[in-house]
Design goal:
5-stranded mixed sheet; mainly beta; 34 strands; Thrombin, subunit H
Length: about 450
Amino acid sequence: MSRSLSILILALLGVGSSMADDSPRFRGRDGNGFSAIRSFPDEWSTDENDAWSVAIPGGGWSSPIVVGDLVLVTTAVSGEAGKPKGYRASVLLPPSMGRAAAPPSSPVNFLLLGIDLTSGSVRWTRRVAAAKPPYPIHPSNTYATETPASDGERVFAYFGAIGQLTALDLAGEELWKQDVGTYPMNGGFGTGSSLAVGTGLIYVLSDNEQSSFMVAFDAKSGEERWRRERAKGSAWSTPTIWESKDGTVLVAGGPGHVTAYDPMTGETVWKLGSYPGSFTASPIWTDDRFILGSSGPLSRGPLMAIQSGAKGEITYGEESEAVVWNNDRSGPGMASPVLHQGLLYVIGSGGILACYDVSDGDQVYRERLPESSNMSASLWAAGDRVFLLDEEGQTLVIRAGREFEIVRRNVIDDLFWSTPTLAGDRLLLRGANKLYCIHESKADDSAGQPSR
């Protein structure tokens, strides 16, 4: 029985509704940033439909996750690191290219916060670790960029800066922890690959300049189940569990390659080699194809689709039955794309929204976004809307379909790189300073809200 059918049956029986609203990993339950139903408002601001906002100490670009009525979010508190800077204030400045600040000279507090989804009150704060990261980060990055994950019973917090994976229960009590090691990243940018969870395992991807690997741990015991070495080089994409019509694989994009593993054993199912570039954006998929792509600040990479059931070696640029289509210079930048009713929405490195037909890769439209700044947060879709959040807090609401139309613009004054989180009738936006909950305003919603 498919997961979507199971959730539907539970909903009809009047049970399991909180499970259906959970968002237990990066980009939601299925890791694709999509909800067929939009129950949160598509219009908001600091004064409208902002149910609550709560200040988050320190700095972090990890997305919040949601389990039941509990929001879980990580952060790193340091007197030296401070808040991250935006694209224009760091990445585009010539002195910042290929440079990073020195690592902190005093320990950083790595925290996990448990926040009430309805009220925004902080239920508990746990210090997962206090340590000095051995490597620096770029001014635009943070020491808490990896999104945690949950299997419904436990929450897994991973901080790549210190190489620590920690499992806690939903009250914030530590269950086990593992040290996976720390490694230098290209240009001193720092780490960013989030966790994947499924089949009773938690997966950590570390693509770095010294010793790249994928490792799987038992979610309950913390015991290492398998580990696979990967080609050396930095990448920041999050591994994806692809449940296709031909079976389930764990797919991870790295420098010059994309590898699909058997999630239980770590054996390679297929591998795309000679790929021209590395990965920051995470992929998207359907039942029968896997869509991946990349672009950098100064270059445009490819966007391509791999057929489900692929096996063995695939070489980029060579004819293969496994490659459904391949579009040159069409890949996403930092923002991961979203798929809605057969249409793929992609933000490239130049601030242009492109829409493609996922069946054949044909371009439907390509439009420059007016009055919009850099977009690092991944796109999301719900109902008949596609949402694009830029770093200055402006969300463009696009009508889904073959005609480009901006329905409205919503603005919250903060700096945004984190990918938003869908949780039933609520939308969570993490800024550099606060976590915001978007929810339809009601007359009795004002009581007991955290201070703005």
